[in-house]
Known about the structure:
The chain is an alpha/beta fold. Residues about 25-40 have low confidence and may be disordered. The protein contains eleven helices and five strands; from the N terminus they run ααβααβαβααβαβααα.
Amino acid sequence: xxxxxxxxxxxxxIILGAxxxxxxxxxxFIGYRFSFGPFRSLGDIRMxxxxxxxxxxxxxxxxxxxxxxxxGKKALFLGSSVTYGAxxxxxxxxxxxxxxxxxDVTKEAVSxxxxxxxxxxxxxxxxxxxxxxxxxxxxxxxxxxxNDATQKKPxxxxxxxRSLADFDTHAVTGAMEYIIAYAQETWNCPVVxxxxxxxxxxxxxxxxxxxxxxxxxxxxxxxxxWTSDAFNAISDEERALYMNDNIHPTKAGYREWWCPxxxxxxxxxxxxxx
Length: 274
């Protein structure tokens, strides 16, 4: 009986140790990737300690542009962790543009998701399932997801068609074309994709190149943070403030680095199409 109790107690301590190790792993590495329950809380505690997430970098301190073409209008932001604000306490690109352009933002962002439609959380699936076709959107902004590159999803080929039924949404290119065609047909509004800043990924570089080719076909806007050497030439000190890792900005990274450049490019595009 005594040995049985000792075994049970040992088993209990092993289980508790495993739970503690798992929670520590969340704290150190992946807590920010979750958007629910205690995992998000762990991520918030960790991210809240980053200098780039200090309160003074919040988006509400921004002021609205007087010449905003989107003032009082609605904009849809579709993406994954970078759009969600996984390393910035969920305050990033949609929140920045909501204030700067005075628009009503719908944020459809889930961390870890892909453009490629092979899961119920993909961009394509959520575009169809979670957005309202009757909504009067004046702009759709789509993140060129790094998850497709990390997971080495097939790039695919550009279709000769403009019909939704003809796009291979199980490849990156077909998924992007489907999203563009659906948004244009459903809301008859400008569609803009944005890239991340440069990091070491041949797969993502190929996706950026393909996006430029799709721009020529569809006339979409591209907010390109990838190509410019000057934009990407920041100091080590700036990078430590602006980025949590190679992909995910902090609040400071969005507000001080990414978003002002995205805003300038977006305004140029919107003004060019009238």
